[in-house]
Write a structure and sequence with these properties.
Layout lengths: L3 E3 L6 H11 L21 E5 L2 E10 L2 E2 L5 E2 L1 E9 L8 H15 L4 E5 L12 E2 L2 E8 L14 E5 L1 H16 L10 H7 L16 E6 L5 E10 L9 E10 L2 H12 L4 E9 L5 H4 L7 E7 L1 E5 L2 H7 L6 E8 L8 E8 L2 E6 L6 E4 H8 L5 H6 L4 E2 L4 H9 L12
Parallel strand pairs: 6-7, 13-14, 17-20
Antiparallel strand pairs: 1-2, 2-3, 3-6, 4-5, 7-16, 8-16, 9-14, 9-15, 10-11, 11-12, 12-13, 17-18, 18-19, 20-21
């Protein structure tokens, strides 16, 4: 029997949710029990075999901060699954093709995702654009070279009081950090839902929210964390797991770290999804003690509308680069494009000029946020230099500092 590909309707949301859980192999009640619940119905895709959903995909609507500070609306691709019984039948290709058509029709210049499997999405034109680190630091060797220079106070907030404050702080930071995405009210309501007995993000019955208030009582930074209790030989040696730490102020950031490192009973602090250029290492008297457990890929970016996407961001130097784009999955994007950019504006149009660089769609996605330089991609055999010196020009043109970073999973 033929399979049917279409968005769900509202009364099919429970079936869609069950299909997502099945696709990820997660029994109800474990892991992330609300996958796909907040995805707009019209942005879902489902593959039906008779009365069963055997494939799923969806997209969130939010904004992504790009170099120069603009917040561009990408499709936040999520909950992509194919049931194991229906593999090798073209379902994933069909959903990706249909979804990118929808993204283009909506006028969204980009699509972005966080990948459960990193091997999948390059063939659909997604490029690895941001990284994150997981690290550990023992508290007894975490002395700072210089104490944080900040006034105000630290305060613990209960769930019902925390959401408005942390949401505002996060929004302020997301507007200034390339790679961050906006989080709607529903996101924070879910995190701080008082009816939940188990927070999915922590995997523990409770987490804490500490905020820093400036001298006027305004919250300007926060950290969310939980603690694993350990008593080896009757001696307290807790592990404090940082879920996220967010502030726009470097000294407030240092003060929040100092608070976390000084919590009673804690022997080590662990983090996930921190930026690769996290300045904390340079605060430490002994920087070797900050042990990076692993560096992981995080945000993958797909350029859908080449002209609009490349014109939306800003560039570190005034230049005009000619790119030959090879886009196997959306061949209409292929061709030669000139990007004329500067710190105060940009435009991108098709051209008949000879290219400076030859790039694939995944590598354009990798370059887009400025965290991966063209020279590195060329040394890996992924970008071809046609004009002498074009790689060095592209490095200056595209690269941003600090490195792009996305702290949100979706």
């Amino acid at each position: 029997m033929d399979l049917e590909l279409r968005p769900i309707v509202d009364d099919e949301r429970a079936a869609f949710h069950r299909a997502i859980i099945t696709g990820f192999g997660t029994p109800p009640g474990n892991g992330n029990p609300t996958w796909g619940v907040t995805v707009e119905t019209e942005r879902t895709l489902s593959v039906w075999d008779d009365d069963e959903i055997v494939g799923t995909a969806g997209a969130y609507t939010f904004d992504l901060t790009v170099p120069g500070g603009a917040q561009v609306p990408p499709a936040g691709v999520t909950v992509v699954t194919v049931r194991s019984t229906h593999r090798r039948r073209g379902l994933l290709v069909a959903m990706m093709d249909r979804q990118l058509d929808d993204v283009a029709e909506r006028g969204e210049p980009l699509a972005a995702l966080t990948a459960s499997e990193s091997l999948i999405y390059g063939r659909f034109g997604y490029g690895l654009a941001t990284f994150a680190t997981h690290w550990e630091l023992e508290t007894d060797v975490a002395e700072f070279t210089v104490s944080p220079d900040v006034g105000g106070r630290m305060r613990m907030l209960e769930k019902d009081a925390a959401a408005p404050h942390v949401g505002r702080v996060y929004d302020d930071v997301a507007r200034t950090r390339v790679g961050e995405v906006t989080r709607g009210t529903a996101w924070w309501e879910h995190v701080y839902d008082p009816q939940r007995t188990l927070t999915e993000m922590a995997g523990t019955p409770h987490f804490f929210t500490v905020v820093h208030e400036d001298d006027h009582g305004r919250v300007d930074g926060f950290a969310r964390y939980f603690m694993d209790q350990q008593w080896p030989g009757g001696v307290p040696a807790y592990t404090l797991q940082v879920m996220e730490l967010v502030t726009a102020d470097a000294e407030v950031e240092a003060a929040l770290w100092r608070y976390l490192l000084d919590v009673d009973l804690v022997a080590r602090v662990r983090t996930v999804d921190r930026p690769i250029d996290d300045p904390l290492r340079w605060r430490l008297l002994d920087p070797r003690r900050l042990q990076v457990d692993r560096t992981v890929d995080h945000l993958w970016v797909r350029v859908v509308d080449v002209a609009a996407a490349l014109a939306a961001r800003r560039y570190a130097a005034e230049d005009a680069l000619v790119l030959e784009l090879r886009d196997a999955f959306r061949p209409a994007n292929s061709g030669t494009w000139i990007v004329e950019g500067a710190p105060d504006g940009a435009q991108c149009t098709r051209t008949d000029r000879d290219p400076d660089l030859v790039v694939s769609a995944p590598d354009l996605g990798a370059l887009y946020l400025g965290g991966i330089d063209a020279t590195t991609l060329a040394r890996a055999g992924r970008v071809e230099e046609r004009t002498s010196g074009a790689l060095a020009r592209a490095d200056t043109f595209f690269t941003v500092h600090p490195a792009p970073w996305c702290s949100t999973h979706f």
